[in-house]
Records
---
Amino acid sequence: MNKTRVLLNTCLLSLLTVLAGCANGRGQSLPYDSWYLNFFSPDYMEAWVETSEVVDIKNRGFSNVLGGVVSSGYPRALSKGIPTEFKGNPKGWPKKPGGGGGKHVIGADLPRVIYVNWQSLVEPQTYEVYIEITEEMRQIMLKPEKAYCNLDGKWITDYRRFLTIGLAPGGIAKVWAQSPCLIPIEVTRVVGKVDPRGPYLGRSGGRYRPLSDISKAYVEKFGVPYGSW
């Protein structure tokens, strides 16, 4: 077991009193209330996050931060039937990565390690990855920049306090630091490992969450673009 995993597991198994202290926001050194974590996957490359965990720079553990359906451009939420034309393109990453259904990591300082366990539904396969956030990455999150924000039509001082993680087949996890009003900056790319426990942390007898008919049809026609992420 590597040092990163030992650190993460130690923090996440801390006494409840310690975890309660983590969540109250005391001792933060951030210029904003909280940072934000969210996930997305390439078009049609559907994924499901089992769990995500965080260890901050004060070695405090935050368990079950975010999980569930991972957002993607296609298939659309209300799509029905197999389209005659597939408009999405899963190859590569978008210039401005998006995410949906994220969560503010309340009470945490800047992250040191982020752990993600997820199902890649098109393969299907279960992966886990430890993403080490370096000091250089944290400085990007702390750097204030002037930006014209289209959201309210004003010049503001903003921070890249959103960490957006793209999850792709093959266990690929790519991370950007961004905000609604600043250009995203790619900060790292990590290749995860297969989790031998399988889906649902080994509690489903090997049964995966079902892939949508649209994504299944896309993969049957075009395949999975390994190597493009």
---
Amino acid sequence: MSTATGADLAQLTGTYTIDPSHTRIGFVARHAMVTKVRGAFNEFEGSVAFDAADPARTDVRVTIQATSIDTRNAQRDAHLRSNDFLDMETHPEITFVSTAFRQTGEDTFDLTGDLTVKGVTNPVTIPFTYEGAASDPFGNLRLGFEGAVTINRKDYGVTWNAALETGGVLVSEKITLEFEVSAIKNA
């Protein structure tokens, strides 16, 4: 999981809470076939349980409030919250629950789990890079991770689109999910 020695890695064993004020859960979608729109979810919570002796037992759980979607455009955000996209009235949460953890390199790993969007659950594998561990000014041990995965939104029942006069569609089917995570070790 890192370049840390076995003794250092053992110190990372524990349960962590994802720090929403230092974490970004974002996404990127193609718009009108020519540009990208970036957004983020501003309200979420999550936990990470890591066991250095048996990393495969790692457990990650994240719950995102769909209504917190933010693309810096109120009209677009309202449309994304509607039944055309996330249907947040019926499905207010997006969830991820891990099912497997596999180290792929010195500081890289794949996290596999069940992603539920709009009531539809599919397995995804997210490649992550471990960015390190540090004690913050308040004495908290923090771990940092970054990762991204591309999904097809139609696999989650998010099918709305509009044809363009010049060909193509308004919104891409492929959506890249981005994760920049800071997690604080629980006391």
---
Amino acid sequence: MSVSRTAVKSASANPVRRAEALTMFVWEGTDKRGVVMKGEQVAKNANFLRAELRRQGLTPKVVKVKPKPLFGGAGKTVTPLDIAIFSRQIATMMKAGVPIVGALEIISSGNKNPKMQKLVNTIRADVESGSSLSEAIGKHPVQFDELFRNLVRAGESAGVLETVLDTIATYKENLEALKGKIKKAMFYPAMVVAVALIVSAILLIFVVPMFEEVFAGFGAELPAFTQLVIRMSDFMVTWWWLVLLAIVGAATAFIMAKNRSLAFQHFLDRTILKLPVIGQIIHNSAIARFARTLAVTFKAGVPLVEGLDTVAGATGNTVYEKAVHRVRDDVAVGYSVNMAMKQTNLFPHMVVQMTAIGEEAGALDTMLFKIAEFYEQEVENAVDALSSLLEPLIMVFLGVVVGGMVIAMYLPIFKLGAVVG
């Protein structure tokens, strides 16, 4: 621990030098007693690190750039959950009285994700050079979204940064849990359908032609269902590359249209909201995100109109995003939040009424948190119900697709057996 504390002091004494590009090094050396010591530390270059180790009373023997792992770690990205954990850690340490620079160093040294470690080191270097935390994270808009940046800025202005960071951590943890539940509902059936299609393609390309050669020696007319499957097999054998190209092309065109066309994105989101069961899950998820995000921004002291502008992008659905922008515009000209929400015809009556009660009682953030908790529970219940509903449907799908081809191949054999009998 003495090495780390000295490193922090040295960095604080020379903030300009630490603000430059930093690299993670591994080192090995001996102390004054001849005891071998090892460690990891960031520095501008190896010479700077050697000088730093000597100042700490160590004789460096080996100083080299930390190698990237062959598998796994090097490819890790910074996920929203990493940011949530970062926020929770720094809030906890600041509440315990640890200076922000020391907290950032502890978080960096204990993080196993190299990209997250590098991100935290960069933020620490900026803070050491005199930037505020909001300014430091503002240089990384991909990892720290507008909501995070606005809340940190508000927390710094009000002198309650650690409280705001703790609130952000809770918010992001709840949001990621909600996303996880929705992904869970979609992932399982999508994977089963994909596997069923792959198995069907393998049967059509490799297995059915073998049966076709056997059937050719029967000298009898094949059942219509068997002939249909054989024609499908002949098409797949001849044009499999065209089918594969069409699938890849369609998927690519869909992704590009979704990412580049706001009109297509809006059409897609509007269509998803109309789907049975799944549409209701997305509705409830958007309302939960809206309520929790607005509650967090309002509690942190962000002005209501500015908060609504940030909240719009957090709903996860362009239909709700446009609705929240409309709410923001109405609130900006003097409408109450509940009245503006009612005009959109998207928010359920219960949500509007609870918001109205919260506004009248001066406890809007508390009421919005209750709304978020209720709708998050609704999403969880709906996901469980959807999983129970999909299981028999998936079994039927597998039976029809894969089982149908198996039956088609055995029909001629059954017919031949009946004739011989």
